[in-house]
Every structure is written in C-alpha cells, then in structure tokens.
Design goal:
- This protein is of the alpha/beta class and about 140 residues long.
- It folds into 2 domains: about 1-35, no CATH class; about 35-135, Oxidized Rhodanese, domain 1, CATH 3.40.250.10.
- Helices cover about 50% and strands about 15% of the residues.
- The protein is built from 6 helices and 5 strands.
- The chain has helices at about 5-35, 40-50, 65, 85-90, 105-115, 130-135; strands at about 35, 55-60, 75, 95-100, 120-125.
- The chain has a 5-stranded parallel sheet with strand order 1-5-4-2-3.
- It is globular and about 70 Å long.
- InterPro entries: Rhodanese-like_dom, Rhodanese-like_dom_sf.
Length: about 140
C-alpha cells in the first residue's frame, strides 16, 4: 500500500514549515532590535528620563560633527578617539544611555561594545542624527 502524501498535502506542509521558519526568524530579529529606537521612541526615552541623574545621551561623532548640531543634553565621546573604549568603559554600567552618531553605524558598534562590557541599559538611535533631523526633532548648536 502506497502512503505517499498527495501533492496538495505536501504543498501545505511546505507552506506551514516556511511560515514557521519566517515567524521564528522575525521574532529573533525583533528581540535584537528592541534597543534600536526610532527617533520618536528615543525622544520618549529622553522625556521619561529628563530628571534621571543616571541617564546619559552620548554623541559618538567627531567634534566637528557635534559642532554642526547635536541633541540637547548630549555629551560628546568621539568614537574615533584612540581612548574611546577605555573612556566608554568608565561610564556607569547601570546607567541608562542613549547613543547616536550620524547614521547609526558607529553607534551600532557602541551597542555591541556595551554588551561586551556588561552595560545593562544602552539604546541606539536608529538612523542616527540624520533620522532625528528627518523626523523634525530639535537640534542645538
């Protein structure tokens, strides 16, 4: 007796398997992205932490870039400085830190570095200051 599944059953199985894999992958990506904040979510984080002395907005661009405009309250720590890692490592590992750069590339590396160093609450502005500006959010000079 031949118990081969029909073509329709095999096709449905393949579709269900593919959807299951996609859902698993999607869930993993969302978990990785929860610390990557869109500009509006970053602004909300800043608003919630306005009076929090353990909150830091960290601009990891160069001094020249910083001088062209920054997020109010941001502290400059140039990612390209030779002592960046050492200076970053001296920050409070329990503080809430929002980091950003021009486009999100450097700050994504800082997010990985924060993980490696044991920081607990570090967030990254997705798209950097370019996305912040595009969202119409304020900069100071």
């Amino acid at each position: 007796m031949n118990r081969r599944p029909t073509r329709g059953v095999a096709m449905r199985f393949a579709v269900v398997a593919a959807l299951s894999i996609m859902l698993l992958f999607s869930a993993a990506c969302r978990a990785q992205d929860e610390r990557l904040l869109e500009p509006s979510a970053a602004a909300d984080l800043m608003r919630v932490n306005r009076d929090n002395p353990d909150f830091l907005i960290l601009d990891v661009r160069t001094a020249q870039e910083f001088g062209q405009g920054s997020i109010e309250g941001a502290v400059l720590l140039d990612y390209y400085a030779s002592d960046f890692r050492e200076r970053f490592a001296q920050l409070d590992r329990d503080a809430t830190i929002l980091t950003y750069c021009r486009s999100g590339n450097r700050s994504s590396h800082v997010l990985k570095m924060a993980d490696d160093l044991g920081f607990k609450n570090v967030y990254d502005l997705r798209g950097g200051i370019l996305a912040w500006r595009e969202a119409g959010l304020p900069l100071i000079k």
